[in-house]
Design a protein that fits this description.
Radius of gyration: 36 Å
Largest sheet: 2 strands, antiparallel
Strand content: 5-15%
Structural class: mainly alpha
Distance between the termini: 94 Å
Order of helices and strands: HHEHEH
Helix content: 40-55%
Number of strands: 2
Number of helices: 4
């Protein structure tokens, strides 16, 4: 009786192991999936875990060099000329000390020195 139990247990273990192996290794002759809506797992791009930073959240932190703003070399810049520079666009009214619509090199230097 003891030998019959051992033989039966061994037989069941062999069948169970064969079942697990059959489930984990697909047959080599099976064609790949033909579902066009789902690309293979290794070609899917990784999920984007970064949160986008909106333009409204970006605060200009450092003023650029005046020479990079005064491309024509006349010694001042207007609001239209600095439309591309976010720092001076944000601080233009404060930098234009005499409110003439132009920020001169001296006004700019004074403006960038203040906190």
């Amino acid at each position: 009786m003891k030998n019959a139990t051992i033989v039966a247990a061994t037989f069941m273990l062999a069948i169970g192991t064969g079942f697990v192996v059959a489930q984990s290794n697909p047959p080599a002759n099976r064609p790949p999936s033909t579902n066009p809506s789902t690309p293979p797992a290794d070609t899917q791009p990784p999920a984007n875990t970064m949160q986008p930073i909106g333009r409204q959240n970006m605060q200009p932190t450092t003023p650029p060099d005046f020479a990079t703003l005064d491309k024509s070399g006349v010694g001042y810049v207007t609001q239209e000329q600095v439309g591309y520079d976010s720092w001076l666009r944000t601080h233009f009214a404060a930098c234009d000390a005499d409110h003439d619509g132009q920020v001169t090199r001296n006004e700019y230097a004074a403006c960038t020195r203040s906190p």
